[in-house]
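cache lookup: miss for this entity combination. No prior model stored, computing from scratch. Input as submitted by user K.M.:
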Amino acid sequence: MIKPLKIAIAGLGTVGAGVVKLLAGNAELIAARCGRPVVITAVSARDRRKDRGVSLEGVDWYDDAATMAERADCDVVVELIGGADGMARRVVDAALARGRHVVTANKALLAHAGAELAAVAEGRGCVLAYEAAVAGGIPAIKVLREGLAGNRIQRVYGILNGTCNYILTQMRRTGRPFGDVLADAQRLGYAEADPSFDIDGVDAAHKLAILAALAFGTKADIAGVHVEGIRHIGATDIQFATELGYRIKLLGIARMTETGLEQRVHPCMVPLETPIAHVEDVFNAVVVEGDFVGRVVSEGRGAGAGPTASAVVADLMDISRGRASMTFAVPASRLVDAPAAPIDGHRGAYYIRLMVRDRPGVIADVTAALRDQKVSLESMIQRGRHPDAMVPVVLTTHETEEAAMRRALQRIEALDTVLEAPRLIRIEAL
Amino acid sequence: MIKPLKIAIAGLGTVGAGVVKLLAGNAELIAARCGRPVVITAVSARDRRKDRGVSLEGVDWYDDAATMAERADCDVVVELIGGADGMARRVVDAALARGRHVVTANKALLAHAGAELAAVAEGRGCVLAYEAAVAGGIPAIKVLREGLAGNRIQRVYGILNGTCNYILTQMRRTGRPFGDVLADAQRLGYAEADPSFDIDGVDAAHKLAILAALAFGTKADIAGVHVEGIRHIGATDIQFATELGYRIKLLGIARMTETGLEQRVHPCMVPLETPIAHVEDVFNAVVVEGDFVGRVVSEGRGAGAGPTASAVVADLMDISRGRASMTFAVPASRLVDAPAAPIDGHRGAYYIRLMVRDRPGVIADVTAALRDQKVSLESMIQRGRHPDAMVPVVLTTHETEEAAMRRALQRIEALDTVLEAPRLIRIEAL
């Protein structure tokens, strides 16, 4: 008699219900690939009476998820509540304390307390798996931790937030401004009522901190991520990007540098020739650069019930098969505290968009400010003539240091003829 | 005292030397991620004196690889000789007979004898790992077998041969004919002196048969793959493809249909909007479509010392960590013999290029032949007028059955005014 893998699910929102559906719909195939059935023995959610379109017959119900994590008859606790603390944290703590494996989709929790939880899991001989926490259905964690494990990782980056990618894609396709497209996305369910977590880059930062920890053997350091969102991207910027041969993407980028771990999330100008430029709509992509393998790109749906459930179930199947991995690829005791490389030291090319009064001498003042900071200009575009009206001027620079760029922009912003705060978008060499 | 993982390597060509370099160069990092060092204890190759740019000090040398597989002091035998039979087969047989794990990059062996070898490995409690056999550095096997394991796979397809993709990319960029670009590729080392294995689609067929077995739980069936290569793609076809909004790619495509397992390798017209259209040069890509996850695309280098070594070492690290998988995801005894779906039953749209004598009535004869087979025309292009000269005529059809298309083409080929065999390229809805 083969013993099933018994799981308890905390949280029955979109993802939780998706996991129940997947385990039911593909039960036979999963059992064949696992060597045994995966059975849900207990669940916990806020409202017992809510219709979730899934059958929970014969499954124990717990009103309190932490109690379930401690007491339910299960091998694995699946945490799908979310949030860096509160109930999600209590569930994971309770499960690990009881020596139960944990599968979670909780990026905030991993980004804030990853190293600490990894140490606890390791101490208890438990798996702490989190494929669903980064890039939804893309097996990005598995690719990085196992598939490319022989490589020294040189850089990891990606499109880690589907909401932002959808908005930027729609802005380009329709030419409409950010606010309108965001409102549409909210209507379609691609953006939350309070969209700040997505559009201000926080969600992408959590995911990047996890990828960086895994890639570089560091303790996840969310505080070390430089974060900018997409609120300030104008329809004008999208147009100029197209004209210059770029797409604007919100990227998360991590790299180990001489001054420390570089982690940044911000809009980027991405050359059209690079694969990630063609990742559109709600799709995510994760790019890993390794010293032997070169560049490996993984693309797929970064959110939604089906893709996220796919990732959760992959973790369950690994546990069922005994394919355990270290949480962050190496023993928790070996994870290091890397200093954060300051964004001021970043070197790269820049796109700058100014709104200026169309008047003789403006460009001379602007270029003088750049010259004084030794910022070398690559191109300048000013379309048409509209004497005394407000017009956009776009500059692109050669590689320069961020600190110099910022000093130049301070002086430019102080010019009488510069009517709005300059917009800066980093041009990425990918 | 932690025991190292001891490996013996059969074959020290490009890939074998790459594995030695990778294990040496990243030894510390690999040991940290494996929990123990990975140590080469024995090697075998044809010429002992050849300089491979790697140190083999202290490593046992065997002139006969099969003897090494049987006798060397090792846990894993790495087979990098290649070929469906002969020495490669003897090495794998000898290793498994001794209860040793096998890691191989040998696609021909897996495609021809995968199910049989899987059964032997399983019976001996050994791992038979072959990440390097498909798509080089892309962890395509891991993604399909583990990362997306919860999904019923609906289709798997990809650009599986870097030589062909390089040639097709160069033809498009330069407008030069196939033969010239092939000669260049040979000079650059991207194509073999005898290129038929690559350009006739045989290599891609091997890889597709492995992916299909894994995706659908079938016995690898190389004989069931419909194979066409890229020799007949003309510069004209490349130009028309661009004009029509397509890229021409050699794809391997597998799908389970009502009439059996569909496996086909042939040039395809791929819409520019699909991610795979932008996979260029020597890069490979594997696309998996699962019922819950949707579409997941993995892209990277499909060949070369570094990427292939990366895949071999990932397999070694999985073995070291005890992350064993079933060879084809399910027990070998459950792998089924699926009948091959005949290509005649394929339904899809087609691109047809004719070389005709420019004369009144030609198009009427051609379209009548199509009409009689109920093939519905989508577009027709005939550029310019050159009375009585040979000119290309390009037709695209709506979805139709391959058998009907072929009957129509037979009649078209028999027309006096059709001067060359019609060229058919399938248009893929991806």
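stored under new cache key. Chain A has a mean pLDDT of 96.
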